[in-house]
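Hi R.,

As promised on Friday, here is the backbone we talked about, encoded as structure tokens. Could you run it through your design pipeline when you get a chance and send me back a sequence?
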């Protein structure tokens, strides 16, 4: 299926994990992909090669999602390279888990800056060209932590809950311009983040998932690509869980 043929797509935080899987899936469906990374230039070069081997254009951009100027520069670079911008996937994020009494002001500020303000930055930078084109998609990658709250993640839960509010409000603002805005609420997905869980934490987490397993990036990428496509043309303001039933 090449339902994204020739489109220009941005995926933030894509050098590994979920972002990487979404970038590759979009490319398989024909999209030219610009993606950001923060530190791992070698992984970024590797992904760019893989994308190009799929017959599409790729643009790697060393970028801090929390910086609006840098987000604007990336949006402009992608539009110049691909001739268009059709979709932005706000995936860049980080955690600094601590119980609130031990959480520093910096722990709070940095998680909110990257996870929530970073998504605002890219939406802000992309929405003007999308309004002129009268089409576009913004997909925010969030977490069930923002739906249910998770102890030790006050900062992360707050930022991810904020993404749900942002998704719905922005969907109402830009729907008249043919722009759709949706969010995915992810549960435990096998990534570097879940790999860092201690065995006891992992078992406790697994016990809370009705399907009895952690998700794979392959459980996320196809639905993300579907939401970018015209097959999802009547879906906006939606929060879709991919969590194995965790947040039921």
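Update: got your reply. Pasting your designed sequence below so it's all in one thread:
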């Amino acid at each position: 299926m090449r339902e994204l043929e020739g489109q220009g797509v941005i995926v933030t935080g894509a050098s590994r994990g979920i972002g990487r899987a979404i970038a590759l899936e979009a490319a398989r469906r024909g999209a030219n992909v610009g993606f950001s990374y923060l530190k791992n230039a070698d992984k970024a070069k590797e992904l760019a090669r893989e994308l190009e081997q799929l017959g599409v254009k790729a643009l790697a951009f060393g970028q801090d999602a929390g910086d609006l100027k840098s987000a604007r520069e990336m949006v402009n670079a992608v539009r110049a390279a691909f001739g268009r911008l059709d979709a932005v996937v706000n995936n860049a994020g980080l955690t600094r888990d601590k119980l609130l009494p031990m959480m520093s002001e910096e722990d709070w500020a940095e998680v909110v800056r990257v996870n929530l303000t970073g998504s605002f930055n890219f939406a802000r930078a992309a929405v003007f060209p999308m309004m002129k084109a009268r089409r576009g998609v913004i997909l925010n990658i969030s977490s069930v932590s923002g739906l249910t709250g998770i102890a030790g993640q006050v900062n992360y839960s707050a930022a991810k809950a904020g993404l749900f509010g942002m998704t719905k409000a922005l969907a109402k603002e830009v729907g008249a311009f043919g722009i759709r805005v949706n969010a995915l609420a992810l549960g435990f997905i096998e990534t570097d983040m879940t790999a860092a869980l201690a065995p006891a934490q992992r078992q406790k987490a697994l016990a809370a998932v009705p399907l009895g397993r952690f998700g794979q990036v392959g459980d996320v990428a196809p639905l993300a690509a579907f939401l970018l496509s015209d097959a999802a043309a009547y879906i906006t303001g939606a929060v879709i869980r991919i969590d194995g039933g965790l947040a039921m």
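One thing I noticed while checking it: Strands lie at 8-11, 32-37, 58-62, 87-90, 136-143, 179-186, 239-242.

Thanks again,
M.
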